[in-house]
Structure formats: C-alpha cells, structure tokens
UniProtKB/TrEMBL annotation:
GO terms for biological process: tRNA threonylcarbamoyladenosine modification. HAMAP family: TsaD. Its cofactor is Fe(2+). It catalyses: L-threonylcarbamoyladenylate + adenosine(37) in tRNA = N(6)-L-threonylcarbamoyladenosine(37) in tRNA + AMP + H(+). It comes from Oceanisphaera profunda. SUPFAM superfamilies: Actin-like ATPase domain. One of its GO terms (molecular function) is iron ion binding. Signal peptide: none annotated. Keywords: Acyltransferase, Cytoplasm, Iron, Metal-binding, Transferase, tRNA processing. One of its GO terms (cellular component) is cytoplasm. Required for the formation of a threonylcarbamoyl group on adenosine at position 37 (t(6)A37) in tRNAs that read codons beginning with adenine. Is involved in the transfer of the threonylcarbamoyl moiety of threonylcarbamoyl-AMP (TC-AMP) to the N6 group of A37, together with TsaE and TsaB. TsaD likely plays a direct catalytic role in this reaction. InterPro entries: ATPase_NBD, Gcp-like_dom, KAE1/TsaD, Peptidase_M22_CS, TsaD. This is tRNA N6-adenosine threonylcarbamoyltransferase.
Length: 335
C-alpha cells in the first residue's frame, strides 16, 4: 500500500509518499519561516495563501521523486486538524479532491497522531504499548499508547504548550521568529544554575503541565538584570539556559511519573520541541536509569512534515478509516 500525505496545518507545506514495504519514497518540505519572520509569528491568512501556491507543485515533485504516477497511489492522507482553519482547508480541499479525481480513498489525519507515530518511521521503531510525550508549538501531551487509535491522555498543559513557552520567552529576549530553536542555541552558551526558575506543577501529584509562569519568571529576571545594568550577552545566555533547564526538568519529572504510573518502560518523544538536544539528553538518561528506552523521530520529522501524515494515514486506511465525500477540517480536535 502506498499513501500520499499532505500537511498544511500551520506554516510548513509538507508532502510525502509512504509505502508500507519501501518506506518513505519522497519527502518534500517548504517552510514559510521567511514569509512570517517580519511579523514575529505566523500570519494565518498569509499561511493559507502560501499553502495554495506550494501544495500542488510539491505533490508533483514528490511523485517525480518517487518515480511514480497517480496510478501507483492507493490513498491520500491529509491533516484535518488541529491547526489554523484556513491553512488546514487548503490541504483538506486539495487532498480530498485529488483522491476523488484519482478514484482512491481519502483519509483525514489528526496532526498530533502524525507526530505521535513519527518515531515509527525510524529503523529502531518503538513497539506498543508506550508512553508518548508530545511537545509542539500548540500542544503538550502525555499519552498512553496501546496501538493505532488507542490513546489515553494522561496529562496535558493547562495553559501554554512547551513550544509556545519557548517561542514567547524567545520573543521576550528579542530573538527572531521562530524563537524556540534560537533560544535553545543561546542556552548552549549559558552557565548552569546562575539563575534557577520554578518547575511548575511538579510539587503536587498529577501529570498536567503549566508553562505560562515560566515566561513571567523570565520576564522578571530580565527586568531585574536590565535595572542592575547586567543584561549582557552572557547574562542572556544564562537566562536562556535557566529557562530551558526548567522546561526540560519539568517534562522529565512528568515523564518519569507517567512511566511509573503505567508500569511501561518505553518512552516516545515527538513534536517540534523533541528536536531539543538538552531534552533528548536528559530523557535518554532518564530511560537508561529506568532500564527503559527512549525513541525519537529524526530531526526533520520532529517538526511538521508530510512523512508523518502519510505514515499515519496509511495506518488509518489499513484500519478501515476513510473520509466521506466532503471537505472537513477541525481547527480544534481532541486526540
Ligand atoms: O511540531 P511543530 O513543528 O509545530 C506544531 O505542531 O506546533 O513544533 C513547533 C514548535 C515551535 O514552538 C518551535 O519553537 C519548537 O517546536 N521547537 C523547538 C526546537 N525546535 C523546534 N523548541 C525548543 N528547542 C528546539 N530545538
Ligand atoms: Zn506539529
């Protein structure tokens, strides 16, 4: 079985072709980062318009890369939510229509299910069951995963998502959009423990997260350092380090709790923030200490991409899911 995957939920146009025997046959990604950079964040209307320009040419390029034609495609998967409504509608409309024109089934994929299954694209793929930590710009979720579609939410963020906290804090530090990776880079130069920020919601039991307070702690520290005439490059790096360490520790504490609570010893980490080197190091250490294993997607499949949508779509089609002949997108959609 071979599936074309289309991802347009935010500011990345991702197209891929996944074959269950051959793996990923084509993978095209166009990032709109430059388009939104001047605005300091994603402008939904501009995102939709750019997806319209890029989606079909990238599908043509993916078919050419895979050396196949529409006749070799057995189904079309597209991200139907959650995400920006206008952006989602581009992928959903093109995906649903192409499937109709080609006489093939279409399947709507949940963006977070795409992230969740992305580590299964790797040679060392996790087996079910496992605990998944999903950390993206829009979501922070801890999920018990027993199989495709068998997801139990163990915890989630009550306010900002982890990636959102990175991005907002980066903005406070005058780092350009997209801030998360830039803040992580700055943190590499930081002195550990010069500043220590809270680990929110770790003192009480439970698996939910809250990251908005960290932004405030950072803002307060920045203001104090500016007032003291100390806000130099090293201080900025030290603050970035303290922020990142607080996020990473908080995520690691909750992962450990979720693993102990479920009795599972496999941890899957996915979504944009799973590209963070410090997070990976700490979670891999945690899993070693628990005699378990951590699984991550390769870097290009951490952030939004079409490969994860093609893969999740193929699993969904195999399980008998198909979309009716209507274009549907859901900006909010629980996993
Ligand atoms: O999964 P993703 O591409 O899009 C959503 O579904 O939201 O995640 C994007 C998020 C952004 O908030 C970005 O700042 C964050 O992932 N991110 C990182 C890193 N790379 C991407 N955050 C921290 N460290 C990184 N290296
Ligand atoms: Zn995403």
């Amino acid at each position: 079985m071979r599936v074309l995957g289309i991802e347009t939920s935010c500011d990345e146009t991702g197209i891929a072709i996944y074959d269950d025997k051959l793996g990923i046959m084509a993978h095209q990604l166009y990032s709109q980062v430059a388009l939104h950079a001047d605005y300091g964040g994603v402008v939904p209307e501009l995102a939709s318009r750019d997806h319209i320009r890029k989606t079909i040419p990238l599908i043509e390029a993916a078919l050419a890369d895979a050396g196949c034609t529409k006749d070799d495609i057995d189904g079309v998967a597209f991200t139907a939510g959650p995400g920006l409504m206008g952006a989602l509608l581009v992928g959903a409309t093109i995906g649903r229509s192409l499937a109709f024109a080609w006489g093939k089934p279409a399947v709507a994929v949940h963006h977070m299910e795409g992230h969740l299954l992305a580590p299964m694209l790797e040679e060392r793929a996790p087996e079910f069951p496992f605990v998944a930590l999903l950390v993206s710009g829009g979501h922070t979720l801890l999920v018990r995963v027993d199989g495709i579609g068998r997801y139990e939410i163990l915890g989630e963020s009550v306010d900002d998502a982890a990636g959102e906290a990175f991005d907002k804090t980066a903005k406070l530090m005058d780092l350009d959009y997209p801030g998360g990776p830039r803040l992580a880079k700055l943190a590499e130069q930081g002195t550990p423990k010069r500043f220590v920020f809270p680990r929110p919601m770790t003192a009480k039991p439970g698996l939910d997260f809250s990251f908005s307070g960290l932004k405030t702690a950072t803002a307060t520290t920045i203001a104090a350092e500016i007032a003291a005439g100390n806000y130099d490059q090293q201080t900025r790096a030290d603050i970035a380090h303290a922020f990142q360490q607080a996020v990473v520790d908080t995520l690691a504490i909750k992962c450990k709790r979720a693993l102990l609570q479920t009795g599972l010893n496999r941890l899957v980490v996915a979504g944009g923030v799973s590209a963070n080197v410090s997070l990976r190091e700490q979670l891999s250490e945690l899993m070693a200490s628990l005699n378990g294993e951590a699984f991550y997607p390769r870097n290009e499949y951490c952030t939004d991409n079409g490969a994860m949508i093609a893969f999740a779509g193929l699993q969904r089609l195999k399980a008998g899911d198909t979309e009716p002949l209507a274009v549907r997108a859901r900006p909010r959609w629980p996993l």
